[in-house]
Automatic annotation (TrEMBL):
Residues 37-71 form the LRRNT domain. This is (Atlantic silverside) hypothetical protein. It is found in: Cell membrane; Cell projection; Membrane raft; Membrane. The lineage of its organism: Eukaryota, Metazoa, Chordata, Craniata, Vertebrata. It is a lipid-anchor. Residues 268-318 form the LRRCT domain. Residues 1-37 form the signal peptide. InterPro entries: Cys-rich_flank_reg_C, Leu-rich_rpt, Leu-rich_rpt_typical-subtyp, LRR_dom_sf, LRR_TM_domain-containing, LRRNT. Its main location: membrane.
Length: 460
């Protein structure tokens, strides 16, 4: 009995010893195996699975990244190219900023089906992108491409990125934004485009951005904004357009931003002539936090804040043209203004002496300022569009009461006025009062009279 008990205890001890041996072997062999799966020069963390390979002078994406890595950090290396076979793993976060990437092959990220954040910022050699560079990233929520010296963007670069919410394109060299460039980004809330070289905002440039909350466009070179450029931005709350080259901004464009709360328009050369009236009217109704809008022209309003101009400052302006693409005052004179010019033509003028835009006289058709009191302003400080030339200043002044007393009696036969007529246009609308029209009947009578007088002197 005792021998049997001893044998049983010995078997139990052997079993425990074997179990301990297997545990030691697992700790020594299996566990280190997991560590050795981490790529060389990288550090791996288990929860959440993170592979950190930053600042290791890597020239390519390292091999051996665990397939189930949730975060992969490859920033501050010397990686130059991203190819379709560069990523043999799935991850949610991929940082590649601060490299030397010059080329991204179309479909390079197509295997990263669950990627939510991609940071390609601070790659100054990445000046061009292929159209399908981000193909397959339908779950991407945040895309960073700041400071990459991008000059253009392919029209389909953001195709099918339906989940994107944050897009960082600031401090590149973009000079043009194509129509419908962002049309698939229906869930985008933040768009950063500041610090580029954009000059114009077209009608369809922001089409589709129905959920955009903030739009940063400051520090560009924007000179013109189409009056329908913001038509889909009904949920926009923050708009930055400061430090651009804007002289005017269509009031209709701002009416489309119904939810706007913070607006910065300072550091622009605002013109506060008639073209400013739509924006001024919008500010009268808007209840927002806004920066100042200091007038650069005309001379008598320089330094004033456009928002606080008076109704009488626009009393003599022509009515807005609903068909104008710019959404500001009409680009052609109204019938009333044509009538005024027909009654007050300069005594000696020629079409060649008027080289300014028709906008010049449009802004000041009935200025009460005397020609002698108009100061000379350097042409490099104030756009010539908003100043009166010597010829224009010499035009006879019409009393406003006379103007409105004759309202509705315009000459409908006037087809163009002298500043607007083509070079070879025969201005029949302004016949001289001293000219006499010679008809065939009058010519016959004249010839008959001459012949009669000649015969009379001959036979008298």
């Amino acid at each position: 009995m005792e021998a049997r008990w001893t044998a049983r205890c010995s078997g139990t001890r052997n079993f425990k010893s074997g179990l301990t041996l297997w545990l030691i072997l697992w700790l020594v062999v299996v566990k280190p195996g997991g560590v050795t799966a981490c790529p060389r020069l990288c550090v791996c963390y288990p929860t959440p699975m993170t592979v950190s390979c930053q600042s290791q002078n890597l020239t390519i994406v390292p091999a051996g990244v665990p397939y189930d890595s949730q975060r992969v950090f490859l920033q501050n290396n010397r990686i130059t190219e991203l190819r379709a076979d560069s990523f043999g793993f799935e991850t949610q976060v991929l940082w590649l900023y601060g490299n030397n990437i010059t080329w991204i092959e179309a479909g390079a990220f197509s295997n990263l089906r669950i990627l939510e954040e991609l940071d390609l910022g601070d790659n100054p050699s990445l000046r061009h992108l292929e159209g399908g560079a981000f193909r397959g990233l339908e779950k991407l929520q945040s895309l960073h491409m700041h400071r990459c010296k991008l000059a253009t963007l392919p029209h389909d670069i953001f195709h099918k990125l339906y989940s994107l919410q944050f897009l960082y394109l600031q401090e590149n060299q973009l000079h043009f934004l194509q129509d419908d460039l962002f049309s698939d980004l229906v869930n985008l809330t933040h768009l950063f485009l500041h610090g580029n070289r954009v000059r114009t905002l077209s009608e369809n440039v922001f089409r589709g951005l129905v959920n955009l909350d903030r739009l940063l466009l400051h520090d560009n070179r924007i000179r013109q904004v189409n009056r329908r450029a913001f038509r889909d931005l009904g949920r926009l709350t923050i708009l930055y357009l400061f430090n651009n080259s804007l002289a005017e901004l269509p009031g209709q464009a701002m009416k489309d931003t119904q939810g706007i709360q913070f607006l910065r328009l300072n550091e622009n050369p605002w013109s506060c002539g008639c073209e400013a009236r739509p924006l001024w009217e919008w500010f009268r109704k808007a209840r927002i936090s806004s920066s100042e809008l200091l007038c650069s022209s005309p001379t008598q309003r320089r330094g004033q804040d456009l928002r606080f101009l008076r109704e009488m400052d626009f009393a003599l302006c022509p009515l807005p043209d609903p068909g104008s693409l710019a959404g500001s005052t009409t680009t052609t004179f109204s019938t009333k203004t044509r009538w005024w010019f027909s009654k007050n033509k300069p005594a000696s003028s020629s079409k060649s002496s008027y080289q300014k835009s028709s906008e010049t006289v449009k802004a000041f058709p009935f200025s009460p300022v005397k020609p002698q009191s108009i100061p000379k302003i350097a042409s490099d400080t104030i756009p010539s569009k908003y100043e009166l030339s010597d010829d224009e200043a010499a035009l006879p002044k019409l009393d406003p009461e006379e103007y409105w007393a004759n309202y509705g009696n315009e000459d409908s036969s006037i087809r163009c006025y002298e500043l607007e007529c083509p070079p070879n246009y025969d201005s029949a609308a302004f016949p001289s009062s001293s000219s006499q029209i010679i008809t065939p009947k009058t010519l016959h009578l004249l010839v008959f009279s001459i012949v009669s007088l000649s015969l009379h002197f001959l036979f008298s």
